[in-house]
Target: Aminotransferase
Amino acid sequence: MPSISKKGTLMPASPIRKLVPYAEDAKKRGTQVIHLNIGQPDIKTPKVALDAVRNHNIEVLEYSMTQGSEMYRQKIAAYYAKQDILVDAEDIIVTTGGSEALSFTMGTIMDNGDEIIIPEPFYANYNGFATAAGVNVKPIASSIDNNFALPPISKFEELITPKTKAILICNPGNPTGYLYSKEEIHQLADLVKKHDLFLVADEVYREFTYDGREHYSILQVDGLEEHAIVVDSVSKRYSMCGARIGCLISKNKQVINTAMKFAQARLSPPTFAQIASEAALETPQEYFDNVIEEYVARRNLLITELNKLEGVKVATPQGAFYCVVELPVEDADHFAQWLLESFEVDEKTVMVAPAAGFYATPGLGKNQIRIAYVLEKEQLVKAVQILGKALTKYNAQ
Ligand SMILES: Cc1ncc(COP(=O)(O)O)c(C=O)c1O
Model:
C-alpha cells in the first residue's frame, strides 16, 4: 500500500471532536448528551444576515474576488474604525473562516522548521495549522492560578532562537477566557519589535468582553504596523459558524501580497457567505448588548455552580465563552470518556473537552477540562449537577 505522509501521521486529532464516537454511542443508547465541549453558540444568527441571503438576485453563482469583495472589505474597514482600529480595505483579505486566515498566516511568515511561541493552553487547532505548515510550536505555560494571564516576558525571551518567527496570542482566549490588558499587549509589542518578530493575534472573540473590560487590539499599537497580523472571523461574532467567513488583516504590504498568493491558489472565499457577512455588519448594537448580557449571566451561574463542587478550581473568564476547569481527577481524558460510556443521571450525561489537547507541553492540563458556556442557563445548571455527581462516583470507584 502506498504510504501516507509523515506530516499526516503527525497531524493531531481535535481534542474537541475525538470523543464524538462515544457521544454518538451514548445517544444510540438513549442517553441525552449535554454538549459543553464545543464552541457552537446557540444564539440566533442576526436576521439581517439571513435575509440578505434569502433576498438575493444572483443568477450565476460566480467566483468572488480572491481577496473578498471590495464592498465587503470597505465595510469591514469601517467596522474596525468604530473599534479605533485604523485599516484600509487593501489591508484585508477575506478568508474561508478564521481557520484559513491562520493557515495563510503560517504559510506567509514561516518556513519548515521555524518556531512560533504560543502561551498555552491555546486553541487546539493551532497545533494542526503548525503541523501542516511544518512549523514547531514553542509553548509557554500560563497558569489557572492567575486566570491564565500573560506569562512573564522573560519566559518568552528564554525561548527566542534564530528560528523564532512569531508569537501567537488569542485575545480573548479560547480556552482560557483571558482578556489581555493594554499593558500586556504593549509588553508583547516591545518584545517583537526588539527581536524583529511577527505578533499574530487571533481576535475572533473581540466583541465578547465582560465586566466593563475593553478589548485592545494589536492593530491599535503605534509602530507595530510591520509586525502585526490579526486573524478574525464572523463565526462567533454573529453566531455564523457555518458561513465560513473570516479575514486576515495586516498593514504590512509584504504580508498581504504574500498571503494573496496563498489566497489565489484557493481562488476565492464563498459568495453567499460574504453576502451574509456583509449584511451582518448592519447588526444593531442591541443584538450584541443582549448576547453579552446572556453570556455574562451564563458565566456567573456556571462559575458559581462549579465553585460549589469539592476539589474543583475554575479560572474566571473575562471574555469569549469558555473556561478551563481543574478537576479532582488524574486523567480528565479518561474521565470525559467514562462520562459518555458509563455514567448518566436521569438518562442524561455531559460531554466536556479534556484540556490536555490545548497544551503543547506533554503532561500539562491532564486534570483540566474546557467548558463552553454556549447553552441556556437551565442546561448549564443541570450539566454541572451531573458533573458533580459523576465526580463523586468516579472517585469512589
Ligand atoms: C480561537 C479561535 N480561532 C479561530 C477559530 C476558527 O474559527 P472559524 O474558522 O470558524 O472562523 C476558532 C473556532 O472555534 C477559535 O476558537
